[in-house]
Amino acid sequence: MNHYPFRSWILDEADLNDTQREELQAHLELCPECAQLSRSLSIALQTVREAHEQAAPPDFTRRFMASLEARQREQERKQARTLTLVLAATALIIVMVSLYIFVPELSLISLAATTIAAVVGLLTSLQQALSFVLNAFQKLSPSTLIISGVILAGWVLLASLTLGLSIWKLAFRKSEVRK
Amino acid sequence: MKQIDPIWIEKARHGDEEAFTMLVDTYQTPVFNLCYRMLGESTAAEDAAQETFWRAWQKIKSYDPQRPFGTWLLSIAAHYCIDQQRKQKVTLFELDEYPDFDLGDPHVPNPESAVITNDEEEALHRMIDQLNPPDRAAVILKYWYGCSEEEIGQMLSLTVSAVKSRLHRARRQLADAVIENQTLTVQGG
Q1: Is residue A111 included in any domain, yes or no?
Q2: Residue B128 and residue A48: Cβ atoms within 8 Å?
Q3: Quick check: pTM over 0.80?
Q4: Is B164 on the interface with A (CB under 8 A)?
Q5: What pLDDT band is residue A176 in, cutting at 50, 70 and 90?
Q6: DSSP code of A13?
């Protein structure tokens, strides 16, 4: 059986004139496939139309407004980070271009090599200083180490107490000023 | 859908947070409902609705007052939900994600009607679950919000013929789902 154009009329929810409506009705009476399609679509669309609206959870607005401030702060931080990166990149480009224009004899490769050599030199010096300290520790007698440890711990304790006292005094004064 | 006095929209466009609160209060349910129907799960729907309002707040200066505000909001929500589903391919409409019914809550129906509602919801979810996200959005906007094909096209950035084609395919799938369900019921019974 030819289902054209009845299947399209059903699935497009086409606006039919009286003649077309009669033709469709006649076809549905003869064609069980199209009749089932039409019935099933009616059921499906009725189910969709009759479904109730899901209400937003309680306190939705309050939660949104609470998150709005945090989101705005985060956005400002992101913008600041982006701005800093852009400014840094711009400054770097300006420096590079200036070097290229005003010091044409300067080779960027040799500049990079010098920088790497300086970094390697610094790391080597740090390594030497560390090995000197470790050697000194190994050569010192246990009693000297203990005395040095006690003196160091005393200094750290004293410094911590002084810092703690300063912070406490500052906080105490601030709260007094507020009162 | 509820309408709001345009003065609040105008105030919100000038950065008035109190006015925007009014807009959130007025449109929270349509936006949440769209997200729920698209994503099928309350927590994801609330997150999506919150994100929709945040995006609306960010873009409100570019909002065209000639366009209905509710339609503009639903358009943001639909795009966000479609993107989310494309990204995550979340498992939708799982029954164990349905909220438990609390007899103390006046918004929740009694257990008997809750069972019926839940069955209906389950049937509905099963039907629209099989549609792809843009087709689902088109069906929701047409049959829940009564949007015309032109409006749906504007909201989903599609041509009218593309909307018609998507709705045609979606109706075919919905009808097939009903036929399949009836076949299973007959075989099971």
Answers
A1: no
A2: yes
A3: no
A4: yes
A5: low
A6: T
